[in-house]
Amino acid sequence: MEADPTMRAGRNGFAILLVALLFAWAYQFVFTGEPDQLLFGLWALGAASFYASKYYYRHGESA
Predict the structure, then answer these.
(1) Where are the domains of the chain?
(2) pLDDT digits 0-9 by tens, 43-54
């Protein structure tokens, strides 16, 4: 099953958001010396949901 353009755009937008959160966390860590746990938690939650979604849709294709 090929993802339609809307699904691909949403997935790409979410991936960009994850990268932006990671850069914001790294920037704050470098310049303040103290990482923000909220930013890292949001990034981890987003990454987990991104990969869970990819697994779910790939698993559904093979069934």
Answers:
(1) 18-58
(2) 888 888 878 877
